[in-house]
Specification:
It is a single chain. The protein is mainly alpha-helical. Helix 1 packs across helix 2. It is elongated and about 70 Å long. The N and C termini lie far apart (75 Å).
């Protein structure tokens, strides 16, 4: 019986280690892709500052309208 418990414990530990390694790889990949995306966005803003400002203003306006109360949207 003791061997069975040890085997199950070792199997669970091995599975846990595999999950840990896989999770760390996913986090690393997502972090790297996030850094690349932020760099791309920064480059686009530098290349087209006026367009970026207009897009930000438009998104802010639309977001504000969507978040406003229904009584304010009826105006």
């Amino acid at each position: 019986m003791s061997h069975l418990k040890t085997g199950v414990s070792n199997g669970a530990e091995a599975a846990s280690n595999q999950i840990d390694v896989a999770a760390r790889k996913v986090v690393s990949t997502v972090t790297e892709e996030g850094k690349q995306s932020l760099k791309w966005i920064g480059d686009e803003i530098e290349a087209r500052p006026v367009l970026s400002l207009l897009i930000a203003l438009g998104l802010g306006y639309v977001g504000g309208r969507l978040l406003a109360s229904p009584s304010q949207n009826a105006r």
